[in-house]
């Protein structure tokens, strides 16, 4: 085999440890070099919890506390026009958002009940299911953090490395181990990665955040194309079931879809391969500019072939066999609705409004599941919740009970397919509000489009800033928060529109980013009207296909600009 050529060396240092040494080249790297972020836990428990918010120095407050899932939240009353003009201390409140780590989205009812109680007692009842299978709680005081940790860890949960320049939560298939059509159950691999590497100081100073996804389900339900590393189950013609390896995906302001390395990974190799790629990123990732520090930028410069060579020769110590790509997904990956498990029981997937739940609601869901004979809950990367192991004679009761607590197993198309980030309510980076805007849009669109009963779900993703936590570039309709001009010439909250994005799905062979049309922006109040207009134009213009009708994403990419305005 002819090896690929070595990439040209940069003309100036990029902060790659393996090339340029460990000298920090920006303020964030200085902070990390001075003290590993994991070490701040001792100070939180023994100094800051006693001394309160004012006892926390800036390097810990706005840096290392993230290693333990703590972000200062936005001070109420600061409008989006001031987001980019105020200093961090002017934007932040004296309270924190706390992110609970839930690898694979897997919870017991005892764990869910614990989170619900923490939210109710310490977080004013707030709780959001994120699109990375975490739960976020707001209004947390540093004085309460040690007790919160004690309660979480007593039931096997933590907030370790849910933020910061570290390996973040591992996305996993919400139906792992229960789906009849599953290729592989990745539960062991997810658990082994967490056991070996979570909280490891050697991997707690990466160039930037590092996101992982693993699925064994043919729906490919973890958005593998937009993670730094992903393992997607495939059947190798000679070697049997295993995983196809992807690297270098991420969105934000410079979106890039991940690439296949063409390598086949056996189940027992997954933790070793994960550790090798994470170490490669640590040693070769760019650290001079944070805007260029994600793995996607290294992959863009190296190419997949050289990346695979370095991975195998320097970090893994053996070659991986070539393997097949995953086929087109078999069905939608949000798992909403009632579905049969392979053991004869059922799981019920339900949609809250854009991930917004509450502490009392989570507690009630835990009680509901227990009463039905289920003791397992799963969260999804689509801000949804699943109750597993429901006996057939309890399905109707679970569906009705979930509905009573704001979770709908039979949602409208937009209730099912809309997600939103935290937005200006709590996020210091946000420019506009998101959750309430999304909820109003869903309710309005349900009425506006009630004459379209057969309309397939069209994904609507709403983000409060350019960072794309709500994955706007891979939605049918993605809205990026910014200030826009209304019809009267006044500056108001609004969104830039992205159209036709999407990841691999039953409707499309390949992932693709949405298109933007110059000047296409919408006010926050005008979102329902715009979405209705563009959806009706799609319904009028879509073409028939051999398998049904043209998907929204395909139409949006071929439509004339005037049809999208």
TrEMBL record:
Top-level lineage group:
Bacteria
Q: Does the keyword ATP-binding apply?
A: no
Q: State the name under which the record lists this protein.
A: assimilatory sulfite reductase (ferredoxin)
- Similarity remark: Belongs to the nitrite and sulfite reductase 4Fe-4S domain family.
What region holds the Nitrite/sulphite reductase 4Fe-4S domain?
164-314, 418-558
Q: What does this protein do?
A: Catalyzes the reduction of sulfite to sulfide, a step in the biosynthesis of sulfur-containing amino acids and cofactors.
Please name the Gene3D superfamilies in this protein's record. Answer: 3.90.480.20, Sulfite Reductase Hemoprotein, domain 1 (3.30.413.10)
InterPro entries found in the cross-reference section: NIR_SIR_4Fe-4S (IPR051329), NiRdtase/SiRdtase_haem-b_fer (IPR005117), Nit/Sulf_reduc_fer-like_dom_sf (IPR036136), NO2/SO3_Rdtase_4Fe4S_dom (IPR006067), NO2/SO3_Rdtase_4Fe4S_sf (IPR045854), NO2/SO3_Rdtase_FeS/sirohaem_BS (IPR006066)
**For this protein, what is the EC number?**
1.8.7.1
EC supergroup of this enzyme: oxidoreductase
Which Gene Ontology molecular-function terms are recorded? Answer: 4 iron, 4 sulfur cluster binding; heme binding; metal ion binding; sulfite reductase (ferredoxin) activity
Disordered: annotated span: 1-23
Query: Which keywords belong to this entry?
Result: 4Fe-4S, Heme, Iron, Iron-sulfur, Metal-binding, Oxidoreductase, Thioether bond
Q: Which reaction does it catalyse?
A: hydrogen sulfide + 6 oxidized [2Fe-2S]-[ferredoxin] + 3 H2O = sulfite + 6 reduced [2Fe-2S]-[ferredoxin] + 7 H(+)
Per its Swiss-Prot or TrEMBL entry, what cofactor is needed? Answer: [4Fe-4S] cluster
Tell me which residues make up the Nitrite/Sulfite reductase ferredoxin-like domain: 90-155, 339-404
The beginning of the lineage is:
Bacteria, Bacillati, Actinomycetota, Actinomycetes, Micrococcales
């Amino acid at each position: 085999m002819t090896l690929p050529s070595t990439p040209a060396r940069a003309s100036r240092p990029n902060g790659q440890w393996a090339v340029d040494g460990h000298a920090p080249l920006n303020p964030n790297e200085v902070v990390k070099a001075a003290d590993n972020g994991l070490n701040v836990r001792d100070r939180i428990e023994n100094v800051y919890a006693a001394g309160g918010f004012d006892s926390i120095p800036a390097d810990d407050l706005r840096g290392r506390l993230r290693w333990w899932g703590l972000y200062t939240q936005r001070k109420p009353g600061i409008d989006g026009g001031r987001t980019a003009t105020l200093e961090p201390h002017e934007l932040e409140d004296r309270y924190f958002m706390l992110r609970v780590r839930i690898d694979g989205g897997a919870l017991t009812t005892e764990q869910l009940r614990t989170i619900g109680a923490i939210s109710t007692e310490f977080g004013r009842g707030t709780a959001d299911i994120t699109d990375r299978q975490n739960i976020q709680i707001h209004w947390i005081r540093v004085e309460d953090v040690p007790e919160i940790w004690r309660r979480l860890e007593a039931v096997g949960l933590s907030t370790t490395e849910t933020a910061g320049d570290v390996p973040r939560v591992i996305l996993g298939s919400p139906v792992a181990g229960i789906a009849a059509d599953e290729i592989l159950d990745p539960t062991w691999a997810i658990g082994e990665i967490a056991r070996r590497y979570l909280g490891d100081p050697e991997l707690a100073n990466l160039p930037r955040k590092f996101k992982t996804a693993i699925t064994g389900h043919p729906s490919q339900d973890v958005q593998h194309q937009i993670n730094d590393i992903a393992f997607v189950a495939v059947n190798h013609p000679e070697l049997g079931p295993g995983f196809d390896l992807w690297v270098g995906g991420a969105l934000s302001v410079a979106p890039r879809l991940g690439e296949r390395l063409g390598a086949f990974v056996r189940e027992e190799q997954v933790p070793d391969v994960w550790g090798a790629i994470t170490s490669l990123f640590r040693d070769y990732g760019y650290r001079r500019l944070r805007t260029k520090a994600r793995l996607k930028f290294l992959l863009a410069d190296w190419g997949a072939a050289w990346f695979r060579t370095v991975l195998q020769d320097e970090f893994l110590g053996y070659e991986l066999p070539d393997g097949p790509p995953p086929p087109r997904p078999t069905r939608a990956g949000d798992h909403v609705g009632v579905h049969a498990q392979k053991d004869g029981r059922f799981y019920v997937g339900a949609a809250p409004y854009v991930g917004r739940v509450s502490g009392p609601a989570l507690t009630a869901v835990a009680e509901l599941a227990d009463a039905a004979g289920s003791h397992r809950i799963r969260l999804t990367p689509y801000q949804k919740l699943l109750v597993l192991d429901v006996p057939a004679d309890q399905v109707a009761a679970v569906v009705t009970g979930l509905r009573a607590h704001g979770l709908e197993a039979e949602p409208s198309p937009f209730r099912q397919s809309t997600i939103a980030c935290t937005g200006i309510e709590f996020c210091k980076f946000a420019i506009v509000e998101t959750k309430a805007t999304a909820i109003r849009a869903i309710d309005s669109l349900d009425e506006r489009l009630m004459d379209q009963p057969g309309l397939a779900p069209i994904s609507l993703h709403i983000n409060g800033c350019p960072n794309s936590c709500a994955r706007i570039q891979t939605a049918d309709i993605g809205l990026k928060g910014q200030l826009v001009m209304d019809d009267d010439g006044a500056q108001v909250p609004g969104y830039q529109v992205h159209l036709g994005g999407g990841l691999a799905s039953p409707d499309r062979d390949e992932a693709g980013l949405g298109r933007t049309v110059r000047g296409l922006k919408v006010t926050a109040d005008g979102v329902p009207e715009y979405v209705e207009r563009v959806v009706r134009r799609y319904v009028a213009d879509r073409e028939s296909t051999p398998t049904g009708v043209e998907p929204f994403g395909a139409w949006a990419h071929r439509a004339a600009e005037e049809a999208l305005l």
